[in-house]
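Q: Can I see a sequence and its folded structure?
A: Here is a first one.
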Amino acid sequence: MNKLALCLCMILGLFLVDKTKAQVALQTSFETTDGYVSGNLNDQNNWKVKAGNAVVSATNTVKSGSQSVNMKADNAALLVDFIPYSGIVAGLTGDIYTDIWLNPVSFATKGVAINAYDLFGNSAKRIFVIELSTDNKIKAYNGSAAVNIGVWTSKDWVRISVKADLAGEKYKVAINGVLVDTEFNLRESYTPTASGARIASIKQFHSLRFNHTSDSQVASSEFFIDQMYIGTNPIHDISFGASATSRTITLSQPDYGTITLSPATASYELGQQVTATLTLPQGYKNNGWTGDLSGTELVKSFSVTGNMTVGATTGVDLGNPPPQYVISINQPVNGQITLSPAAADNKYYKETKVTATIVYDACSQFNGWTGGLTGNELSKSITLSGNLTIGANIGEITTPAVKRVVTTVAEFKTALSAMNPGDVIEVEDGSYNLSALTITRSGCQTKPIVIRAKNQGKAILNGNTALTLESLKYLTIKGFSFQSASIGTGIKIQNCSRVRITGNIFEIKETSSCNWIYIGDTFASPLPLRSGHNLIDHNSFDGKTQSGKYIVLDGNYNQQSQHDTISYNVFKNNGPRAANEKESIRVGVSPLSKSSGFTVIEYNLFQDCDGDPEIVSIKSCDNTVRFNTFQRCLGTLCLRQGTGTIAEGNYFFGEGKTAVYTDPESGASNTIGCGGVRAYGKGHKILNNYFQGLTGSKWDAAITLTNGDVTNSSSSLSDHYLPEDITVAFNTFVNNKSNIEIGFDNNGKYPKYPINCSISNNIVVDNTAPIVKSFSTAALAGLSFASNIMYPTGLSSIGISATPDQIRNIDPKLVQPKCKDLNGACADHLAYKVLRLDQWSPAIDAAKGDFNEVSVDFERQPRTGAKDIGADEYKGNSPIFISALEPKFVGPSAIPFAYEVVYDEKPKPEEPVEKLYPMEAANLLTPDGDGVNDRWIIENIKMYPNNEVSVFDKAGRLVYSKKGYDNEWDGMLNGNLLNEGTYYYMLSTGASEKKIKGFITIIRNK
């Protein structure tokens, strides 16, 4: 017998099962004869590789045959699924057997888990979980508890065999053929629902998954698998014993009445007869048994068919109802009593179970229930038997505020657990590793709690310090240096309001994804929104290297946290660039994008924040981003989702910075640059911003309005809404690589053009490129232009055709005023780089339209009377209140903003002449039909739609005249060709009073 035949016999022997009435989901050694080819396992025979790597290969590491599967992840997630049955079809039921040979090579950070799943609807419930941990243990999960069942050795094959009794909701495990004594409960307790052809209530096997104990866990791992079997036939060489025949009956007691069983035991045998009896109070009836019983009788006998649930729906017998009683509430002054369930006029039937709950301000204390209730529990349940009056004694908190000075971790933690409203914790200089710590103590408006460093930045929170502020109010954390390492979240502000994080230095050392500050409710919580009115101010955030955000604002299941403010912070050195999920600030998230955040991001400085194409990502409605400075940041302020956000008075400086970014998936490289504002969605206003020396284009122009892939009426929560009703007004652009880009369609992926957007009262000066770039006439048609000044010089041009009412091509006279600086160091101020209007600028008082929302300019100087075009409202030497920010004006050591300009008085110059597009009229006309010089061509005449052309003969007689000339004259007069000779012309552009004059010669070649 040759070696191949011998191997096949061995495989067949190992997989020997009786296939009579058996279902087999998988039986393979990953050979070519099983339909596996060398290479990526993804999409082979129901396998999906969603994260990490899984490769079929012919290596020395095989259990039998010539191929095995190598799974590997390098500091990344691992997620490999075998899905023989989807959640809408019937899976395997009854006793399910799984047999796997696994060869572990190495695990770091986390081990690997083998998970069996039951799929239904949008749910995935784990049947069993077997884990190989980093400490060489093999564990099985008994419910949620991990139990050690064996050990593994690197590069040695280990056999893991499982019998899952889905009917009995138990499973057994054998390691290398030896049965483990413990019988395990299923990993999750659940009742499946119907989904497609998949029936309800019956547990089924649908899929097997390999991961690092969770789907998103980042770790490093390598292992091989071979010789796998999943099916309903027993594994021939392992005796798991018979499945248990004992079953349980779970009672779900009704709102009214009691269910009892006879006999009443902890478990029952299959086929055993049981009687359920429902006892009801007077005035109530059985509306129907629930769970595994049906009918409305009060006594029900049945046979045990499996693990069963028995309940009943009971209600008032309207033909003979019980009496009704009223609960009267005396509400306390500083608290609120609520009843559950709520009822009109607080009127309930007798026997109704009602829970009274008291809530009160943190500066108050609950001294106990009054009236018909006693005790001091915050929630008190009663069964109503008569009318009842209740109240609560709420008094002012009597605990005096104290100051606690701490010098050790133990003292720090003790102080945190003892905080009361008005308390101050002052932390001496030193290093403190608080580990993962949850703070739940609240202050109140008149008595906030303050946790502060004694000396700014000298109390260092390091190690794996990660703070969770849970369901609290009025707490301040001030003056610390956060230097934690290898954590997932620095400060989680969850279900909180009126929290302030101020004056801190954040320099977290990252090894994996990390959000430095999280604000929001418990994500996807159905409870009413609790998060809001939090303040993050005067902090420094420096040195992000991994995915995650400096600050992220989320919410509950349908509403983003509201009225939070992020101000006077410095964000710097976020890099290198990632494809996604590395914004410096993200406000909202796709599932919450239709909710209003009312977030304010103001007076912050962003320096070298390159980690994500979206420096600040807005994904909700009605937010404000104003008076921030973006310096050398590769990306844009992106209004990615939502409606009605205002981007006002921000400063963007590119300073020549670009970088080469290589996509990790495609390997393609491209140059990226510094951008301004990119907007999708409806109703945004981009006002009073200043863009100078930006180096980005396409996605990262100073103003980017691409196409979208859906309309704004779409229910999608993740697509790119087309730009609609977006206002771009009173901005100033100075020598950017790309100033305004319209209608990029992302290689055909975004087919929806902008609608009803306006570009008004802006100033653009440029010397290298077209000022407006439109990718299509259809996209350009979705925008209107009005009262802009665009001044191209050098190689620049306007880029589109426009009338003078839309775009005036005239020098706006932007200047760099002197600054009032006692040290004479004007050039050291970023505000000095900002170009402002000269006192004789044609932009002064020239804006058109009401724009009542534009009440100040980019320096918060008031705009009164007729407004000036551009971001600057000329006020001469009047005080300015804000400008481009420098580090000294933000962060923990910020000083008040101070900068003064000094204008030199100058005489009024001559009236500016609007720059004309260079025009050259042909001096020869040969109308002979050969296609050359058949018509009189004047270059760039189309740029002046209000032009007027007149042609005269030698005697001064008018032979041709046309308003709005468009290169159509063929030398004819009254249907006859003019005589050969030289003629004189005059041209008025309509854009100025200047006349252009010259001569044209007509030659007749026929």
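Q: Show me another, different protein.
A: A second, unrelated one:
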Amino acid sequence: MTETTSRFQRLLPGLLFAAGWALFLGILFAPLWSGGVIVNPMSDGKDGYVTRHFAANVIAQWGEVPRWNPYIFGGMPFLGAMHGDQVYPISVALRAIFPPALGIGLGMVLHAWLGAVGLLAFLRKQSLSWSAAIVGATAYGASGPLLSLFYPGHDGKIYVLGLTPWALLAIGEACRTRRPQWFALWGLLVGLMLLSPHFQMTYYSSLLMLAFILFTLFTETEKSKRLLVLAGFAGVSVLALATAAAQLMPFAEYLPFSPRSASGSSSTGWEYGTSWAMPALELIGTLWGGFNGWLGTYWGTNAFKLHSDYLGLLAGLLALTALIRTPAGPERKRVWFWLGCVIFGTLWVLGGQTPFYRIPYHLFPMISKTRAPSMMWGHVALCVGVLVALGLQQWQAMAADVRERWAKRVAIGLGVAAVILAAASEGLITSLAPAMRADAAFAAVADARVGLLLGVASAVAFALVAWKAPKYLAAAAVALLLADLGTQIRRFIVIDERGADVFAADETVQAVLKDAAGATQPWRVLPLGRVYMDDYLMEHRVRSVLGYHGNELHTYDETLGGKNQWTNLSNPQSWRLLAVRYLLLDETPTQLPPGFTVVGEGLRTWLGERATVLRVPEPAAWAVVAPLSFKVASEQQTVATVMNPQFDPARIVLLDTAAAFGSTEQPQRLPDPILPAPTIAVEERQPGVYALKIDGLSQDGFLVVSENYLPGWTATVDGAAAPVGRANGTFISVPLRAGAKEVVLTLESAADKRGLMTSYAGAGGLALLALLGLVLRRREGSA
């Protein structure tokens, strides 16, 4: 038998699992392969599709990642504000090969596959048997915290959870062998996580990885080599950060201008940081499927829930077995480590419900700027997967009489508990639910009973196999986990078979584009109500005052009255500043405001709702020139002034004190607007580059453009460089001389360019390190 054949036979169980898991996911996501798209009305995926399609078009037309997204929230930097996996190499490659819908979906499915196969490989490297490793990988790969993320479209979370097991594998091998290629692999995986670019999930993975590094160092690494290994990880961390610089540098450049860095912003503080934690009662639902309801029947205390935290009762049984039955020794230490990770993660996801979260909130860097600590449950699921594998080994190692005794206890105990809980489930659930969720709680009872039946049946069936046919224990565990978890997870796999046609122009888009034909300047729509509170309009190059993002400019939020409040949007003065041309309403008002024109009513939206389009009277221009400017020190005063109905942006511009132009002396009286008003035609050469053709500017003035200001904006006036300042709260202003003909505004981000080059350098460094390791290994083999 050749060495290659022998190696193949050793790896055969793993190869079969990898193929089988690909088949399982292939069947689960079958409509995707025939042109479907992973999207539903509640999914972030619908917005993710639009931004990725936009990026693909920009790259195809101009050969670069978009500099600027002008279509939502007054505009924002594309990479700095983060629009998903725009520089994540795997996603970029898939979307370059496949149509957007398939490329996006395939990337998510691929990482779900990587998560399961990666945990299998990690467990094998931890010296677990093939059967135990396969069961542990199944428990993680089919778990709710991983696969249910497809429903809300949280691809970044899936990417990180898919890569984390491989990073743990690399850590273990680096600590044991100290070979450079393992350090390089770990650095590459961390860099990819950061490029995903879900920084919060990567942070959580980093906590787990750090804990595992320390555990492995003190349990498996020679004492004399520990500092060397730590130095290796420290050095490679620098290369990992460099590899991720294409996303990190633009993000760091933009962070001071985002809501999460602004003092007093609604996106900071304890209440914000602990929002979207897992309510303690929902821990029951991690082992009792459906206890807290699914999707529309969710009755917990969060506003809604679009994913599942269900791990499976059988997974819980196996993990508990590892804790109780593992004898003293190295295996016992391993159990305690992973149990500690589960406890740590569980306390973390509870957020402010226990005093524990005060520690990371106040002591861990950047944690105070995050929210939704419940995200860490995906990492808890991974740790439980390891305990499941360790638990299965204990079942297999039991003496026949002990295994029979344990099996009987499990079957009888769970059977009795199931009868009692099934009978009491209605009263239990409805009594625990908040009064406002009473209807949802009542509707959840049926699903809870089904979930209880599935969970108990899988655990009892496993116990019976352990008793009667123990040699089939691993196969039974895999089948039962898939039956239970797969049944529960199906509701979270929603694929629209219409594919890209989902995003075709609906009746509203057709109406506004037809009505606005011939407009010489950009304009915006303002959704008021339920309709179009997403990024769909961006697909058709329609600018919206709002959108779906969360990382818009802080100055924009404050100008509109505060993030997620936007109290000034009810003030028509804000419409003037934002160049609002149309209002999008759920229905036609019973009494039409004076001057408004109905462009269309009862129009079917892309999500099947109905909308009414009103054109505002005398829509304001996107670009205007005022004769006077004045620097205002107080942001609050600026916002209050520009929102005053008597404020006319054609008469005066209120500048930030950092502007390189403008008067500091308060005017005694306001001048009249420039008459005749100059005409301004706007050409968008590419996102982030505007050319404004001006005709008839009879006196000096100050151009104000209804687009968010950032320091990266540069301007030329008739070919000569000109200063750019922040005006009227959040907009762009440029001083003009009489007779000016052309203004070109360009967003330049040095961080975008430096980041890309640094990423190439970091990846190159990791490649050289891996190559060094392979060369050294080959020399050792030939010595």
